[in-house]
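Hey, quick one: can you model this chain's 3D structure?
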Amino acid sequence: MEALTTAIKSFIRLSTEEEKLISTLFREMELKPGEYFLEEGKVCKYVAFVVKGLLRFYINDDGEEKTGYFSNEGDFLSYYPSFLTQTVADKYIQALEPTKLFVIDYDRLQHLYKNIQEGERFGRLAIEQVYLSAVRQLDSFYNDPPEKRYQQFLNTYPNLVQRIPQYYIASYVGIKPQSLSRIRKRLVKKH
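Sure thing. Here's the predicted structure for all 191 residues.
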């Protein structure tokens, strides 16, 4: 719980009483590799904080999985269009390794917003970070060549390269695994 409160404190101030309240609102969830935090056709029930582990966010486009992003230790995670509207999702969020999360459901999050002095500010600042990250990635996907997108992946997730299978990295960059191998070879030659 300390990692969660530290993460929240990076956005807002918390009193001792507010820290205690937070510990009652979140519950622990564990996922095994391959298990889903969210599946297409289901409602996203939680916002999560990743204590340990690694998850990937993807869509299934006519049988082809396209990875949108990765979340690891210290990240907040949800599929907000489904969570905020409580409607079914068209996305998947899957654990890639043993994962420990602290999760909060919609009603408890509303309680947090009402009963933590700067709770709504925390929600706004956290979602702004998610939004900016998504816009940057989408902009890069449409405007940058694959080699630059791969370099941005390395800059964004330097500690994850060894933890993520290459075919998921290729999917994230928007290319086939063979093309990723060629890009990696070119980058090694440059250095």
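One thing worth noting: The CA atoms of residues 3 and 51 lie 7 Å apart.
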